[in-house]
């Protein structure tokens, strides 16, 4: 295994006056969490390197990325192809610093291809003697092959900052030898626009009567697999296809039935409105199908990242009476408003967060628990009956997570000084 002792002294090379920073992540997917992270990280980079720093954001989805990221003379959007190896290699060569900015960095829950893109960026940076930092990232489930790849390639990273202590421990257990420290997710420092305050009520005035948010995920789609061909309805972006199967469609059917019953009971028993929160646009078809199953469709709305940006979605989350979520970043972005929450988890990210918030024992449910829907309804009844039940955990949890998140910029600043990128 190669060590991390290579000298990445940028000022010793002939560079333009402004450092060039490459942000490698899940950019342009109409994903609220990735959007909030990206915008917060751009602020961190500019605060440390100045407003003239040259920042490049590569993406498979240029049109989507331009919805929320304004390109200017110092901020550049770089479209890359689905087979990304050569494009990433070239971009790394053109830049002075590589930041891995995707939260779900070291896991193959969604697709191995995404993991390989981040590992390839690290590999390319190491080979080209460019400093590389994984910036407030997570680690989760990995196949044996991907564990071996992470151990080999992530060890070439100059610095890994994980967003939970549990992610740090997972990487160390795998055998990653790069310097690792743990903080919290960048999205805690994301600030919504003041014009988006009270967004939910302005969008849906009836929501002022009280609203429960359900952030759903279609578990049956994942992981995305690499195939030379497949059914058009399963195509994500060639050569990536959703891994549908008869068994997975049964899972989806159970999800629709369970969420529809849950939403109807919230409306009928607690006289609340329900908003389905699509933190990624891929969640929207499931939300629409659930709504079709409901008896009380007129008292339910769908709010999707396909239409609304991270500022609007964050404001909407802050206006809820209760959040039931399968999405990590809806839990994070609602925390600042002290919204009571319950997780229906399907990977280690929510599990790790709820352990940090001390909500794991009482308010985290596994998506394949045989008593999921009965237990979920019981917890919904409990929190809607007393909204202060989690107060002693949410307030100190937010304070701790925000303090840790603010350390990301400090740690990056120290790294940049060590590499003579800033004085």
TrEMBL record:
Keywords from the UniProt entry: Transferase
An MF annotation (GO) of this entry: transferase activity
Superkingdom, natural source: Archaea
Record Pfam families: PS_pyruv_trans
Keyword Transferase set for record: yes
Residues of the Polysaccharide pyruvyl transferase domain: 31-348
InterPro entries: Polysacch_pyruvyl_Trfase
Name of this protein: Polysaccharide pyruvyl transferase
């Amino acid at each position: 295994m190669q060590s991390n002792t290579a000298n990445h002294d940028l000022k010793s090379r002939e560079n333009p006056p402004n450092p060039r920073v490459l942000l490698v992540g899940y950019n342009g997917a109409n994903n609220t969490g990735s959007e909030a992270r990206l915008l917060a990280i751009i602020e961190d980079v500019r605060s440390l390197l100045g407003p003239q720093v040259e920042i490049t954001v590569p993406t498979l989805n240029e049109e989507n990325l331009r919805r929320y990221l304004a390109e200017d003379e110092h901020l550049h959007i770089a479209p890359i192809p689905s087979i990304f190896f050569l494009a990433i290699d070239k971009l790394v060569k053109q830049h002075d610093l590589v930041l891995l900015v995707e939260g779900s960095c070291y896991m193959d829950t969604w697709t191995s291809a995404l993991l390989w893109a981040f590992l390839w960026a690290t590999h390319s940076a190491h080979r080209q003697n460019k400093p590389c930092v994984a910036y407030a990232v997570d680690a989760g489930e990995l196949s044996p092959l991907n564990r071996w790849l992470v151990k080999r390639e992530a060890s070439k990273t100059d610095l890994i900052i994980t967003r939970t202590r549990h992610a740090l421990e997972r990487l160390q257990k795998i055998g990653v030898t790069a310097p690792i420290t743990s903080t919290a997710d960048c999205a805690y420092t994301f600030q919504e626009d003041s014009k988006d305050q009270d967004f939910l009520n302005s969008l849906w005035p009836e929501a002022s009567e009280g609203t429960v948010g359900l952030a759903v995920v279609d578990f049956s789609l994942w992981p995305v697999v690499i195939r030379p061909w497949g059914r058009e309805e399963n195509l994500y972006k060639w050569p990536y296809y959703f891994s549908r199967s008869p068994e997975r469609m049964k899972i989806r059917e159970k999800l629709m039935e369970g969420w529809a019953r849950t939403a109807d009971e919230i409306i009928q028993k607690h006289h609340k409105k329900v908003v389905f929160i699509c933190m990624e646009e891929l969640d929207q078809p499931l939300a629409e199908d659930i709504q079709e199953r409901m008896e009380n469709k007129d008292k339910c709305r769908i709010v999707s990242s396909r239409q609304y940006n991270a500022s609007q979605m964050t404001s909407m989350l802050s206006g809820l009476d209760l959040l039931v979520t399968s999405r990590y970043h809806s839990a994070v972005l609602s925390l600042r408003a002290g919204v009571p929450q319950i997780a229906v988890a399907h990977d280690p990210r929510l599990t790790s967060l709820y352990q940090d918030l001390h909500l794991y024992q009482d308010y985290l449910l596994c998506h394949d628990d045989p008593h999921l829907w009965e237990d979920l309804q019981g917890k919904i009844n409990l929190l809607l009956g007393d909204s202060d039940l989690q107060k002693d955990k949410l307030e100190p949890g937010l304070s701790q997570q925000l303090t840790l998140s603010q350390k990301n910029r400090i740690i990056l600043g120290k790294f940049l000084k060590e590499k003579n990128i800033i004085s």
